Amino acid sequence: MPLLKLRKLQLSLLEWYDSEARVLPWRLQAAGSRDGYQVWLSEVLLQQTQVSRAILYFQNFLEAFPDVRALAAAPLEDVLKLWEGAGYYARARSLHRAAQIMAVRGLPSSFEAWLELPGVGRYTAAAIASLSANQAVAAVDGNVRRVLARLHNNPNPTESWLLETAQDWLFAARAGAWNEALIELGAVLCTPKKPRCSDCPLSSFCKANLEQTTSRVPAPKTRAKVKTIQALALIQFHADLVFLEQRPKKGLLGGLFGVPLMALNADAASTLEELGIPDAQFLGTVSHTMTHRQFEVVVYAIQSKRSDLVLAKNVALSRLDQKILALLQP
Ligand code: SF4
Question: Which of the following is catalytic: 20, 43, 112, 116?
């Protein structure tokens, strides 16, 4: 695109962003000079959480841990508890580890330094560096991918094409605002289905709009197949107390406590027989989808005299475990 036309496009988008961007709790300061801790926190939350839910978590986290030192000093269990329900708990663990690094070294001052922290990938590092320090590095998330693909009418944008194009088009003087403007456009107007081209400040520049291909650009990604996992959950309880075991640190639900789950290779009755508890009581079944896995869990319960039973509401639990334990309620 000729430079003059690109300038017009950039100014049209920034003008729209300056007047129309949503006011969100992490956007209270101007893009480019925001508090790095708050930008980092919001970006980690937004990685897999919808904006409406991320707002609540962001506010709760800031209240509990107003700065990186407070977060670093907190026990991991407290962080996980506050993260409860946000899913993808590896993020909370990385958040805590990164806070501990930053409490010693200070907040990173560049894209490259942010990239070294656990849980911070290329997009997140670029977003933080541009929003907090106006560093001229393009942030490419799913929204930006869609907007750039449509502006160029490119149905199959590769990673390298996206990074190169985004960097070429970056408005360096307002790098943070530019990145956020593209993300915002993708989130509110240039949505995957039914983009609102008639309200879009870039409609006259957009090849997919002009050539009426928005419904086909970008082409849908092939989705990974969902794998079904059959499992048996055994709740050992006494009155309000239950037994919770800590899951292995790596893998799904890493490090979280939960109801013991075992793969169901045979039928539930044979498995219970093998465990020596054929009289465990059937409570129901739970279906739960998590990262390309569909859990189908049959839930049984048995009274227990173990001494290590705990009150489940005091422990950070995954949604799956919350669903399982809900079956125990009278
Ligand atoms: S004109 Fe339509 S397709 Fe093009 S960027 Fe705007 S909303 Fe997206």
Answer: 43
Asked whether residue 297 falls in the same domain as residue 238, the answer is yes
Last residue of a domain, one of 198, 222, 246: 222
The partner residues of 233 in beta bridges, in order of sequence, read 261, 299
Which ligand 1 atom sits nearest the alpha carbon of residue 186?
8
Q: For residues 140 and 214, state if they share a domain.
A: yes
245 is catalytic: no
Structure tokens at 30: 């101007």
Round to whole Å and give the CA distance between 53 and 116. 27
The separation between CA 221 and the C-alpha centre of its own chain, rounded to angstroms, equals 19
Is 24 inside any structural domain?
Answer: no
Final residue belonging to a domain, choices 187, 203, 222: 222
Instruction: Note the pLDDT of residue 267.
Output: 87
Residue 171 CA, ligand 1 centroid: distance in Å: 19
Q: Check residue 252 and give its pLDDT.
A: 73
23 within a domain of the structure (yes/no): no
SS3 readout for 166-218: HHHHCCHHHHHHHHHHHHHHHHHCCCCCCCCHHHCCCCCCCHHHHCCCCCCCC
Which pLDDT value is given to residue 330? 67
Burial class of residue 322, CB neighbours in 10 A (0-12, 13-18, 19+) = middle
Nearest CA among 154, 131, 277, 163 for reference residue 211: 154
Shared domain for 42 and 178, answered yes or no, is no
pTM of the shown model: 0.80
207 and 232: one domain? no
Is 28 inside a domain boundary? no
Name the residue range of residue 62's domain.
34-133
Ligand 1 centroid to Cα of residue 216, in Å, is: 12
Summarize pLDDT for 158-178 with one digit per residue, the tens: 999 999 999 999 999 999 999
